[in-house]
Amino acid sequence: MSNPAELEELKALCPGAQEIPEARQVYIFLPNLKLPAGCKPPQADALLCAHSREGYPTRLFLSQPVVGKGSNWNTHRIADKTWHTWSWNYVSAEQRLIQILLGHLEAFR
């Protein structure tokens, strides 16, 4: 379970933010997350993984890849949906959820 105050911080940025349990882990679903200026698409559904996965301390998955941004895009099946993620490492899980999210979005600036 996420810290309720941290989830509320995410809801200020993405009002529909909610926890999604999957395989003994909790992900944060962020519907219609606005991506940094210049991204194509300008928004996408996102899934924030604030725990270690595949050698990364945290991950951000998107409903579609961002054109011309990020590298080594891969797909993963989580919560019965296909998600896209890129190679972006060293975003520590020892931060607030909002900081983890912003750390991953830095890849697109």
In short:
The chain has 109 residues and is an alpha+beta fold.
Count of DSSP-assigned helices: 2
Q: Overall pLDDT, averaged? A: 95
Structural class: alpha+beta
Helix content: 10-25%
Tell me the radius of gyration. Answer: 13 Å
**Biggest sheet, strands in spatial order?**
1-2-3-4
Poorly predicted runs are none
- The total of beta strands comes to 6
Portion in beta strands? 25-35%
Largest sheet: 4 strands, antiparallel
Q: What characteristic shape results from the CA principal axes?
A: globular
Determine the N-to-C terminus distance: 30 Å
How many separate domains?
1
- Sequence of secondary-structure elements: HEEEEEEH
Outline the structure in words:
With 109 residues, the chain is an alpha+beta fold. Helix content is 17%, strand content 33%. It has one domain. It has helices spanning 4-13, 97-105, and strands at 18-22, 25-34, 43-49, 59-62, 74-78, 81-85. The strands form 2 sheets. A 4-stranded antiparallel sheet has the order 1-2-3-4. The protein has a two-stranded antiparallel sheet with strand order 5-6. The mean pLDDT is 95.
Question: Top keywords for this entry?
Answer:
about 110 residues; alpha+beta; 2 helices; 6 strands; about 15% helix; globular
Write the layout of secondary structure elements.
Layout: H1 4-13, E1 18-22, E2 25-34, E3 43-49, E4 59-62, E5 74-78, E6 81-85, H2 97-105
Antiparallel strand pairs: 1-2, 2-3, 3-4, 5-6
